């Protein structure tokens, strides 16, 4: 599951290895594409097959091409259906069924036990025949997906394509996946997504040979599964007060207030299950318990805890997050799970088990009595009791549970599979205990993170998970033995939707990162990232045919600023240019073309500038980033900090606070903001000579939900010699009502000084009844300006 945003600083983002980055505005533009010969791939297949051998010639489809089901297996019709339907739609060619294999112009499909892997296949293309062999129909289906990628990308068109020769090169492919679990998780609880999008997502997953779609159907922000027995779950729990990005849990204000939400009927979900099965994809439903349950408790408040006096906690101001452990709760949940299992035939049922605060359990006399009756030692063991009791019920139905790695706390249920999301530690521990594991560590697999340093990126939960990072993932941790490693079933990319209210943004966050994960979980011999890109770029044209709103942040180019030690000039240096690519740039914000300046070394920044770099491929922009230089008297001058920023929020280096680049207005982890926990900021800058100083400003970030607070006070001090400073102004009592950057401006009234010092005292300990209460607040500081 996911860390509440309030913990993101302490836990989630600490693992992101953000490279040093201090930049100038990079408004995107175009990069010229010059692939090395070593990058070229014989076949642009994703995920890349384990063994590929090119033959001579090519097979050409025509109106007389026949297809023969040699094994007479009915499921094979489903497996070859994508080829039949797409060819008919895009080319008008109708593949007719043949009774026996002719020698020419035929596609022969058969099940054959010589293929040892259940999902493996062999695809042999010659000028006369296409032969597909697999152990099971699903292997045939994956062979068909590879065959479709050998055809022109117009095969993905929804209308008839003209002037296309429908041919595939002669080739022999032997292939099978490295992992049995290759999945995506779609959170439809935070934001309801239309049914049509779920079918589209299944289509795209099938193209990538992914086989598990995990649907997060319930959470505190919404209940999306129709229950026949408990109709208030959707009548009330599926609709919350407010707007799409409103985080309120108020379901009670109706009907006068604006309500937001929706749900899926059981009929719709059965249809979706059948559709997924036709693509050999299993849908795994998730019903949250014991926490993330405010929508359910809004509908059925009798399932909440009682306080120490026996009264219900007031709703909605103090609505609790967990179900009470009373018997009525287990009756309710087993009834719900029975309905869920009647709709979803999957082996696995996800029961979450994550992020339970257990606050009310500690106060509730019912829960405390449960601890005594079951001879438990703590509320952690009470959570384990809760999950184990649910597991026994699910096992009795012939199914198994999956839970997030918190289900390890207090003792793991006997047959549970663990999804490791808080890094890999939980997965390692579970595997060492002999449990099956699915890896979903945030730094590699959380697609609600930002995917570039571009300040124009759409809203995201936080973090930074770039495409290259996803592609680099190895699901089996080095800490496991070979035998323990066999318990790692695979990996899953998760899209939580707190900040993803639309289909368009969901696509943007999923693609192409999910494409990279598909190869990371399939290909036994992973290629270089540059080789992957050489296949991804043409693959994007297939996504275009499906009108996918994918991200074009494929590269990891940055612009670092520094002061040249010889000339004392502020310089901008482009780093991270992939092998085989060249960078072109402009400094006026215009889009560069191949006729613009080629980057050959650091660029002088002598005035306000918009340094623009970018990449183009086939005349289409395939990447963009943005930064801006705003020059003032302090920019690029010698500066020093009394205390360096926290190592996890020091990506821009110690001079990021006077490099001429303003950090994001609403994003504190963009490599421009510097962060300290429980410490003051004190920085001084040498203007080079005594100057008349009229104004000094500094920016601080405010986001209490993430434990970030405005400073308690900010002071400006000046000096002529850099040693003896005098305070000239101080400000206090900053508002913490609104999230984001706040600029603090001081009118210094023409004071003469060479050195400027800024001291910002951190807020102190976080107040009670706030996320992180009692712990030291974080202080984030950005650009100082002097004029």
TrEMBL record:
The F5/8 type C domain, residue ranges:
663-762
Task: Show the InterPro entries listed in the entry.
Answer: Beta_hexosaminidase_sua/sub, FA58C, Galactose-bd-like_sf, GH, GH29D-like_dom, Glyco_hydro_20_cat, Hex-like_dom2, HEX_bac_N
Q: Where are the transmembrane segments?
A: 21-39
GO BP annotation list? carbohydrate metabolic process; glycosaminoglycan metabolic process
Transmembrane as a keyword of this entry, yes or no, is: yes
Q: Which residues form the Beta-hexosaminidase bacterial type N-terminal domain?
A: 44-176
Q: Which residues form the GH29D-like beta-sandwich domain?
A: 579-612
Q: Which reaction does it catalyse?
A: Hydrolysis of terminal non-reducing N-acetyl-D-hexosamine residues in N-acetyl-beta-D-hexosaminides
Which GO terms of the cellular component aspect does the record hold? membrane
Superkingdom of the organism of origin: Bacteria
User: Could you say which protein family the record assigns here?
Assistant: Belongs to the glycosyl hydrolase 20 family.
What protein does this entry describe? beta-N-acetylhexosaminidase
């Amino acid at each position: 599951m996911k860390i509440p945003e309030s913990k993101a600083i302490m836990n989630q983002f600490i693992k992101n290895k953000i490279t040093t980055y201090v930049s100038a505005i990079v408004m995107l533009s175009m990069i010229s594409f010059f692939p090395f010969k070593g990058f070229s791939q014989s076949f642009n297949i994703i995920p890349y097959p384990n063994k590929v051998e090119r033959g001579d010639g090519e097979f050409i489809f025509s109106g007389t091409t026949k297809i023969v089901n040699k094994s007479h297996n009915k499921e094979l019709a489903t497996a070859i259906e994508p080829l039949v339907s797409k060819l008919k739609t895009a080319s008008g060619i109708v593949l007719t069924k043949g009774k026996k294999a002719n020698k020419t112009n035929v596609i022969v499909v058969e099940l054959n036990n010589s293929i040892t892997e259940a999902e493996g296949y062999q695809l042999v293309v010659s000028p006369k025949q296409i032969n597909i062999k697999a152990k099971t129909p699903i292997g045939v289906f994956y062979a068909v997906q590879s065959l479709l990628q050998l055809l022109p990308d117009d095969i993905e068109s929804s209308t008839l394509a003209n002037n296309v020769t429908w041919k595939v090169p002669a080739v022999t492919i032997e292939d099978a996946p490295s992992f049995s679990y290759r999945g995506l998780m779609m959170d439809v609880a935070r934001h309801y997504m239309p049914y049509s999008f779920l079918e589209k997502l299944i289509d795209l997953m099938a193209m990538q040979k992914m086989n598990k779609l995990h649907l997060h159907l319930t959470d505190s922000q919404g209940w999306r599964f129709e229950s026949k027995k408990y109709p208030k779950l959707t009548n009330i729990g599926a609709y919350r007060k407010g707007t799409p990005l409103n985080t309120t849990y108020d379901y009670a204000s109706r009907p006068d207030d604006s309500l937001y939400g929706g749900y899926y009927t059981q009929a719709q979900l059965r249809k979706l299950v059948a559709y997924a099965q036709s693509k050999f994809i299993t849908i795994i439903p998730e019903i949250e318990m014991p926490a993330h349950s405010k929508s359910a408790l809004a509908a059925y408040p009798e399932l909440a805890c009682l306080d120490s006096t026996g009264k219900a906690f007031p709703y909605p101001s103090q609505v609790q997050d967990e179900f009470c452990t009373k018997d009525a709760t287990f009756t309710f949940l087993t009834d719900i799970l029975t309905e869920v299992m009647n709709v979803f035939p999957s082996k696995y049922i996800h029961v979450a088990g994550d992020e339970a605060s257990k606050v009310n359990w500690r106060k509730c006399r019912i829960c405390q009595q449960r601890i005594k009756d079951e001879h438990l030692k703590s509320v952690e063991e009470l959570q384990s009791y809760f999950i184990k009791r649910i597991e026994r019920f699910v096992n009795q139905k012939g199914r198994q549970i999956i839970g997030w790695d918190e289900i390890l706390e207090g003792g793991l249920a006997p047959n549970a599979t663990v999804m490791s999301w808080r890094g890999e530690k939980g997965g390692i521990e579970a595997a060492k205990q002999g449990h099956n594991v699915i890896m979903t560590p945030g730094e590699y697999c959380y697609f609600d993170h930002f995917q570039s340093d571009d300040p124009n990126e759409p809203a995201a939960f936080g973090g930074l998970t770039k495409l290259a990072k996803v592609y680099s993932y190895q699901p089996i941790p080095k800490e496991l033995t070979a035998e323990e490693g066999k318990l790692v079933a695979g990996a899953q990319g998760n899209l939580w939707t707190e900040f993803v209210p639309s289909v368009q943004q969901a696509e943007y966050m999923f693609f192409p990162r999910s494409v990279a994960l598909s190869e990371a979980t399939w290909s036994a011999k992973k290629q270089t990232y540059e080789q992957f890109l050489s296949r991804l770029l043409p693959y994007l044209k297939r996504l275009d045919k499906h009108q996918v709103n994918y991200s074009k942040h494929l590269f990891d180019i940055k612009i670092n600023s520094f002061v040249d030690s010889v000339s004392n000039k502020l310089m901008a240096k482009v780093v991270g240019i992939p092998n085989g690519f060249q960078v072109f740039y402009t400094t006026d914000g215009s889009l560069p073309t191949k006729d613009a300046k080629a980057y050959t070394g650091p660029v002088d920044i002598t005035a306000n500038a918009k340094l623009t770099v970018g990449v183009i491929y086939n005349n289409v922009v395939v990447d963009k980033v943005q930064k801006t230089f705003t020059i003032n008297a302090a920019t690029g001058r010698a500066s020093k900090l009394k205390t360096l920023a926290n190592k996890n929020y020091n990506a821009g280096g110690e001079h990021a606070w006077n490099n001429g680049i303003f950090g994001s207005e609403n994003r504190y982890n963009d490599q421009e903001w510097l962060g300290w926990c429980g410490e003051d900021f004190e920085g001084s800058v040498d203007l080079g000579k005594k100057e008349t100083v009229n104004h000094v400003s500094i920016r601080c970030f405010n986001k209490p939900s993430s434990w970030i607070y405005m400073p308690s006070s900010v002071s400006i001090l000046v000096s002529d010699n850099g040693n003896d400073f005098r305070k000239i102004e101080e400000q206090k009592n900053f508002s913490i009502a609104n999230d984001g950057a706040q600029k603090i401006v001081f009118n210094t009234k023409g004071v003469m000084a060479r050195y400027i010092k800024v001291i910002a005292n951190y807020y102190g300990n976080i107040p009670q009844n706030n996320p992180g209460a009692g712990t030291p607040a974080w202080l984030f500081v950005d650009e100082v300006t002097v004029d």
